Amino acid sequence: MRIARTESTTQLEQLSEEVIRCRLCPRLVAWREQVAREKRASYASEDYWGRPLPGFGDPTARVLILGLAPAAHGGNRTGRIFTGDRSGDWLFAALWRAGFASQPQSVSRDDGLALADCYITAAVRCAPPANRPTPAERDNCRAYLVRELALLRVARVIVCLGAFAWDAALRAVALAGQEPPRPRPRFGHGASAQLGRWTLLGCYHPSQQNTFTGKLTEAMMDAVLSRARELV
User: What pTM did the predictor assign?
Assistant: First the structure.
């Protein structure tokens, strides 16, 4: 899964550096850094990332996976989106089954994982308290997603993990020049909406709240990713 360097690769790397330096949201900065200092007991010996998270994956991807925000002791610890937490375990196993990931686990930034035809990012780039970003925090991050959409030039499908990501995608696509149809498309698992070159697909977020209760099953997530592959 070697990824060839392109102009988009360089520009995405530059954008990643901007994201990592971001300090626009005082509440999020304070929380992510507090978590990185105090740590969870089981990770006490680890150095936490404690900064915003850029997107990750194939710059020539046709499928974009959009999540909510990094987990306090997941991405905020490891420095890679959906890495080091139960939601990520579920997501990457599904991406591996669908042929988008080179391995079914994502545990650290240097674990050898590569994505093919898939790119993963989040609506909010810092871990928020209680996993609940404010509207202002969401809006501060929106420009990063809009720029990613522009740089991922062949992306055609946006898989939105949860209602928050669905809403963020609709807002970002509108700023990218494609207004949503009326009535505004509503989120649901398996929902779809066509907005210019992008097709939005809804998928329940692979949080433990959803996976432990059976609201989201492996078969349900596999079906969404299979649909994404069919569309591209």
Answer: 0.94
